[in-house]
């Protein structure tokens, strides 16, 4: 179902003001795929690299739990608080709406009182591990633009792994390990994101920063720091985005690092608040998550500035005579040269690398290379006449998120 997008002139002006306030014009927003212009031969299109705006991607995912029956409440169960084993007045009952804690409460509106959250069953099978996999699936390639943040209501887990997939869940690779003791849990030296350099950005680390300490009522979040990694190229306040765009444009491994189709949160050991597990009161130990934040954009290979959520699926609205869910191939009859992703370079508007009509004949020219002819100034390369039209409804469009890449 297409969701309505109603923009008043005032709201549009505010978004433009915010964007220009945070981004110097020389950075480029890559929010326009083409612009209307004129040459000596008449009206034409100028083509540019483009991408959708960043958004809250949790609105478009599906969540899967393994084991499927790990959510509390069937049968009903009473829980104790971690800090006070004698305070056992929290009940979970899947049959009662007010007492149920289903998975969708990880993604609902925050700010409610009391806080809503998903909750697992307790560690009643100790010493068998209380292991839970939470898989977030988009059925679409997306690019991360901000930190992944997971908020726990039961104390942060003592052991956890964040994993990513680039092939719709067929294979997985770790993003980061989390533990109170990295050496003991994963035989890895503990590190933080501050230990990462430009040369080690792709290294997988184990961090103790989000697991140690029994102050869980104040420290609830676990992060995977996207922006700190961006800052290795763009500077501490992300003021040098041109440098980051240049690296993304020329380094496939770097682009792939920030690209996912699925995320998996592997919860391996819950918070215990002590060195020893109290086997006489196992109802103190469980997982509870009140919020997951994943900020990103549809990957459209710099060939679209909008992304539609229709029939439970995200799809790029492709420009530049490209097609496919990620604009990953040329349209029929537009295959005079091989498809290529758009290019961030040259800054600030990039290169569109549009697909050429077959009538042009075979053209040799790779990504970002200059051709003898100027396809970016040819009005016949689109099936449409140059015109200026408002945004279509139901889209995630480009260049409006000032906090994102």
Describe it for me?
The structure is a single chain. This protein has 405 residues and is of the alpha+beta class. It has two domains: 28-52 and 301-358, Laminin (Ribbon), CATH 2.10.25.10; 55-298, Galactose-binding domain-like (Jelly Rolls), CATH 2.60.120.260. 11% of the residues lie in helices and 25% in strands. The chain is built from five helices and 21 strands. Strands 3, 4, 8, 10, 11, 12, 14 and 16 form an eight-stranded mixed β-sheet that branches. Residues 1-28, 366-394 and 399-405 have low confidence and may be disordered.
Write the CATH homologous superfamily of the largest domain: Galactose-binding domain-like
Give the CATH class of the largest domain.
Answer: Mainly Beta
Q: Give the SSE order as H and E letters.
A: HEEEEEEEEEEEHEEHHHEEEEEEEE
Give the % helix.
Answer: 10-25%
Biggest β-sheet strands, sense, barrel: 8 strands, mixed
β-strand number? 21
Distance between the termini: 27 Å
- Rounded to an integer in angstroms, the radius of gyration calculated over CA atoms is 24 Å
Q: Which architecture of the largest domain would the CATH scheme give at its second level?
A: Sandwich
Roughly what fraction of the amino acids lie in strands?
Answer: 25-35%
Provide the CATH topology of the largest domain. Answer: Jelly Rolls
Indicate the mean pLDDT.
Answer: 84
Return the structural class.
alpha+beta
Characterize the overall form.
elongated
Keywords: Disulfide bond, Laminin EGF-like domain, Signal
Organism: Labeo rohita
Protein name: Netrin-G1-like isoform X1
InterPro entries: Laminin/Netrin_ECM, Laminin_N, LE_dom
